[in-house]
Amino acid sequence: MRLSLSQISLTAVVALGVILSTSWPSAEALPVGAINRRPHFSSTPLVARSAAALKSYDQHRVVRVNIQSEDQLKILTENEDSLHFDYFTHEKNIGGNIDIRLTPEDFVKFQSLNIGYTILIDNLQTILDQERDEDGQYQQKWENSKLNKVSMNGVAFPGNDDVFTNSQDWFSGYHSYEDHQTWLQTQIKKYATIASAFSAGKSFQNREQAGIKIGNGPNNVVFHGLQHSREWITGSVVEYLIDQLLRGTDSRVAGYLKKYTFHIIPIMNPDGFVITQSSDRMHRKNAQKNGECLGTDTNRNWNFHWNEGGASTDPCADSYMGPSAFSAPEAKNIGEYLKKLPNVVSYIDFHSYSQLWMTPYGFTGKRPDNYDTYLKPLAVGAVAALKAAGGTVFQAGDIYNTIYPASGSSVDYALSVGVGAPFAVELRDRGEFGFSLPANQIIPSGKEVWAAFTYILDNLKTK
């Protein structure tokens, strides 16, 4: 979908109070062979915003295509730019499922391709309205708890304890960019003996890529969320891992803090995240201006086998790779940080959705030399630990052969500069809620990822 800059407002909006609800639209006649699959809802809090300030996705559909042949894949690839596909998932292989968002106009053209599909969401705006409505009560309680220094469950905070230190309250919903920064600084201040602040650099719009450093071990581990800004669950899960390292009850943590130093950035792409909260909930890229369109896909912009497939040259595409490698400061900053940091034994780039734990490479189907002996066993073990923790099933494998070709990606670059075990992780779910994962899944997601993460930490090759 092509976005003009006039359509994008970067003005921050705070809208607390009663928000008008909307109802499901009447069912439309579906083409023969299409299946109408309306999502059901549990609590899905998102940061309350003014509906008038947000880009509308009225009548935008999300369709799922199960690729049955090379011919189907070729047809999709040949039409993805002209039909402005917004790929929600990218499993571009025979037998794989691809989820695509389409405008009403492009949906009509898409039907003429004569490819079988399932309708996952028949009106995306209805889901976004539902998210905002359901979040109203949470946001009011959260704001009151900040003002009154009282937990959302009514328990008063003793002494100088801050509302931002109550994990149960914090992980009960999604939060504003400003509150995320306050939360991070609160943890750093409270746990100053084991934690400190750092920044990987500044974004295109001059926001800090703010991070927390935990532990003092000789082996460095780097991870972050929200490289793709609409994937809100990733920032929350990264913060859950921070919470576990700082205050969790896992008896292994003290050993981890002696063995490792963790470099953690909850919001890798702060500009894009602000856009998702102020003007366009489905924005994926950063905030760089590219002609009439906005944003570079930072995860196609890393300086390793850049522009070798699996990325778009169209500035308006959601997978636009940028005019040159590391033209996006957000990617360049993290890349330089990784390159300069000694003995980085693991790097994890958290994404959503699809439930995958992946290794390099994305630019080629040829796997790294240590794939079978080291990288894949780590990924398989992480997936097994994750399933044991909560029953959620993830798939392990390399990027190229598991979901799609993707050149210029973060994990490929990380391996190229000597990182021992880099991973790209796609969190919950598999399309039922997609990028609008209910907040009541934050803690379950965090718990299962913590189990996988500890498996990785227990089995890395270290000094």
Automatic annotation (TrEMBL):
Active site per database record: E426 (proton donor/acceptor)
Q: Coiled coil: which residue ranges?
A: none
Carries keyword Zinc? Answer: yes
In the UniProt record, the signal sequence range is 1-29
Question: Which InterPro entries does this one have?
Answer: M14A-like_propep (IPR036990), M14A_act_pep (IPR003146), Peptidase_M14 (IPR000834)
Q: Which UniProt keywords apply?
A: Carboxypeptidase, Disulfide bond, Hydrolase, Metal-binding, Metalloprotease, Protease, Signal, Virulence, Zinc, Zymogen
**Peptidase M14 domain: which residues?**
173-460
One of its Pfam families is Propep_M14
Kindly give the PROSITE patterns that the UniProt entry links to this protein: PEPTIDASE_M14 (PS52035)
Cited function? Extracellular metalloprotease that contributes to pathogenicity.
**The name this protein goes by in its record:** Peptidase M14 domain-containing protein
This chain's source organism reads Modicella reniformis
